[in-house]
Amino acid sequence: MGTNGRGSESGRRSTVVVAETTTPIERRLISNWLRSAEVPAEYRADGPVEEMELDPGRLAQDLVGRDDDPLVLPVGVVWLPEARDGERRVRLSDIVALTNPRNPNRFLQKWLVGRSPDRFRIVLAEPARLSELRARHLAEDGDPAPESFARFVTHRAVVGLDRAERAVIGDRYKVPKLVAEQIMDSASFRRRLDAISTEHNIAPEEVRIRATSALGELVAVQSRLVTDLFTEMMRPLHSAAWTVRADETGLRSLRELNRRYPLVFLPSHRSYADAFVLGDVLARNDFPRNHLMGGANLTFWPIGPIARRTGTVFIRRSFGDDAVYKAALEEYFAYLLTKRFNLEWYFEGGRTRTGKLRSPRYGLLNYVANAIRGGRVEDAMLVPVSITYEGLAEVAAVAAEQTGAQKKPEGLTWLAKYARNQRRRAGNVYVRFGEPLSMRSQLTASGDPDLSGEPAADEAEHTERSRKALQKVAFEVAVGINCHTPVTVNCLVTLALLGVRDRALTLDEVRAVIAPVRRYIDARGIPQGELGVLDIEGGLESVLSALSDAGVVTTYAGGDEPVYSIQPGQHLVAAFYRNSGVHWFVNRALMELAVLHAHANPGLDPVRAAWEEAKAVRDLLKFEFFFPDRDKFEADMRDELALLMPSWRDALPDVELALAALLETGFFMAHRALRSFFDAQLVVAERLARRDPALQVDRTTFLDECVAVGRQMLLQGRLFGPESVSSELFTTALQLAANRGLLERGGDEIRQGREEFAAQLLAVGERVRLAESLDVSNRKAER
């Protein structure tokens, strides 16, 4: 193939090769390839071939003004790392040698061409006629300027070559290019900026400068080199501490789904290591690296700059009324989704402080919804991900924050200490993927006015329906996470030790508590961690020993046999492990309380009394756990009854029989699973009842008061255990009180409501204590 000019002879097809090169060697490799028989037959020209560099300035000068219609063919060179153990990844040793195998200098390129021809590939992108490119550019951007068309052609060529490169190196290296430039060139985004300029009376040029600055702050500038190195450098932060147990059975179908839709991974958030653990699992299965949405607290050097080059998007914690920043962020989200880049963020808004899921935040989820509502993207698939740790070194600091300790800011000193703590073995970490949820289908089914076909009457109704639809979507994600969260050995052991106040238990007594709970887990088909270790000789001892080494459990071995209890001051840490799986036992606990209520009120219809009690107690916990609607909840409660006796699925039997059946199971769960939540609510309710209802409640001051008074009530024996003295639990209890209108300023009506709230919790507490007294496993432990 020759390069003899830009003209074309009649009936012959001319070609313009736009070459993405950085060195003369790369240009020579492409020229030699064009003259070889390796060019695919469908791209071989029967007319003149002209080569030019892939540069917007050159293209604007030499391509835009042509009066012929050549085929434009982008071509590039891909350099590959040396194959090691079947993988071609950059290693730290490469950087120590001052080389970048993915972008070698010209001297190394020359050596590789002569000695290692397997280390480079010629790749080409899908070509197009010049006339087709002009038509697409006008349709998409509407700007006829030569510079705009040159940028358009450059972008299409870069993206096409990137796609061709991924066919060689794998999908996990999918990297966006020229993102900020494309967004600023978008006609729709320019119109939005013009509207902001008019609405806020800001000069159009100033709006564009601020938008460019916001995108420069937001856009992750990914690097394959940095991604490889960062993965290798950060792997010790989790590989030394945990053995990763990932259920990868659904990942193949997810990959297929990803060919059509962007995936939004929404994991539970328990540790700083979550992103590294999930990232490694996805990389092993050849997924492209997610764009991870993160907070500005991790932008410190060197983590911040490196993380940006691996796909982390740092978003301001608050941007108030900054309409330009908000527009840039929303446009960036829409761009990533449109280009089918996968996203990841922790929709709880931060790491859990209690071990169970926190209430979701809706801001970023709303950006995904808006991209679908506005027709920017057909759909996005939400992927619930459960990440559950058997042990976590950072829990102690999280627990301390719940009783007033200040959160230490992230920085180099913090990172060094964190890395040291990660050297200690902490067992397994379980990664489970829930069924992907179609965002469009979820919004439609939830009554979103933009998608359901049922228009709202006015703007206020439209906003409210959109908000509720998004809440339902978040609820389904949370349920998907919980349904795939396994019960771990540490969950079971701490469940046993926290349920006996400050007494110590022998090994046999711990087994007596755990055995009936395991039978229940098996009967319900609840997902499990490596619980089989408890069946091995010495297995339970090893679990208790590990908790003792971590400072959570204390062991006394000076008597006839060792006894185990929660280490003083570590109850919140133990509760963290218990709470990781406590949601699996909530319905059982509610059923117990319902039966006990019906038993204590023989003059009432037992079925009605039991159902009303179950719903009333569920309402107390609606900000702690994710409950389904009424019909599903009643079906779940019938399933709990059916575990006792299948014939009781549709009706509560004689209360005495129901109570006897509960006793036969060998355990009660209400005091083990729910007491700390009710105790925290009691603290809040009593403090409110003692306040003048005419005074405004300052939340910060009030929560500090609850922590102080909670400690007093604990010392008085009015609270069961230290795990209930938690600012996190007090916060959700205060949220419940606000939902009931009890934080409003008023008179006797507010005072009476607060007193009734406290009285309800006192009554529930009595039934919880009754459940504890009936617990057969507790009585075995006492003997």
Word description of this protein:
The protein is an alpha/beta fold and 783 residues long. 52% of the residues lie in helices and 9% in strands. It is built from 34 helices and 15 strands. The strands form 3 sheets. Strands 6, 7, 8, 9, 10, 11, 12 and 13 form an 8-stranded mixed β-sheet that branches. Strands 1, 2, 3, 4 and 5 form a 5-stranded mixed β-sheet that branches. A hairpin with a 6-residue loop joins β14 and β15 (563-566). α25 (586-600) crosses α28 (655-664). Mean pLDDT is 88; it is low at 1-10. It comes from Rhodococcus indonesiensis. Residues 263-390 form the Phospholipid/glycerol acyltransferase domain. It is a peripheral membrane protein.
Overall structural class, as computed from helix and strand content, comes to alpha/beta
Taking all residues together, what is the mean pLDDT? 88
Major sheet summary line: 8 strands, mixed
Q: For the terminal residues, how far apart are their CA atoms?
A: 93 Å
Short summary of the structure?
The chain is α/β, with parallel strands linked by helices and 783 residues long. Strands 6, 7, 8, 9, 10, 11, 12 and 13 form an 8-stranded mixed β-sheet that branches.
Features:
34 helices; eight-stranded mixed beta sheet; five-stranded mixed beta sheet; 783 residues; alpha/beta; disordered N terminus
